[in-house]
Amino acid sequence: MAPRLQIALDTLTLEDALAPLQKAQSQIDIIECGTILIINQGLRAVREIRALFPDLPILADVRIAEAGSLISRNCFEAGASWVSCVAGASLTTIEQVVQVADEFHGEVQVELAEEHYSLEKAQRWADVGVKHVIVKRSRDLEAAGKLEWSPKDFDRIAELKNLGFKVTVTGGITVEELGVFSGHNPDIVIAGRSIVKAENPLAAATALQNKIAQVWG
């Protein structure tokens, strides 16, 4: 199955997020209210985007580290479909978030970090009900020019899928490099700046969808 396309809205203002989103919406499968957007605009961003897009999944990318019940409940009440936790959060915190997500028929995503990941830890996330893991090339590594996705990344995708997780890949992914994921079957591909900063966001999102269709047939 071809991966779905998620737009990451990590702008400073809601207006700057909505402008490209509304142009590209016909090609978008999932909306991410990014960490930067929520820090600057609060959960107003989730509420307003939910009101405009009642039928699309919305991720509140709040990267929960603790206070799991409180933060996740606020996000789901604002209209989020999914919330994110950092891999360094305690298992107790992640389990709290899963319990709240279940109340709202939502989903929990754990965002991997190299220093907080092991296969044994991933198994514990699965055991408490986490359904989704994010494999990322960090924004800071990307800015430093470390752009290659490595065999280690692809092995990680495979082992997570073998545990039953849905897997998202993210980190400045472009049309040109989508082909490197052929045969690795991520469930979701995130694109942020390549759509949001594009002169024509609809054309940029369409190009990504066309490439996804080409790679995964």
Give keywords.
217 residues; alpha/beta; 8 strands; 45% helix; lyase; EC 4.1.1.23; orotidine-5'-phosphate decarboxylase activity
What does it look like?
The chain is of the alpha/beta class. Helices cover 45% and strands 19% of the residues. It has ten helices and eight strands. An eight-stranded parallel β-barrel has the order 1-2-3-4-5-6-7-8, surrounded by seven helices. The longest helix is centred in the C-terminal third of the chain and has 16 residues, at 201-216. The relative contact order is 0.16. The model has no long low-confidence stretch (mean pLDDT 93). Its EC number is 4.1.1.23.
**What's the average pLDDT?**
93
Shape: globular
> Strand fraction band?
15-25%
Radius of gyration: 16 Å
Describe the largest sheet.
8 strands, parallel, barrel
- How far the N terminus sits from the C terminus, by CA atoms, comes to 8 Å
GO molecular function, one term: orotidine-5'-phosphate decarboxylase activity
Enzyme class: lyase
Protein name: Orotidine 5'-phosphate decarboxylase / HUMPS family protein
EC number: 4.1.1.23
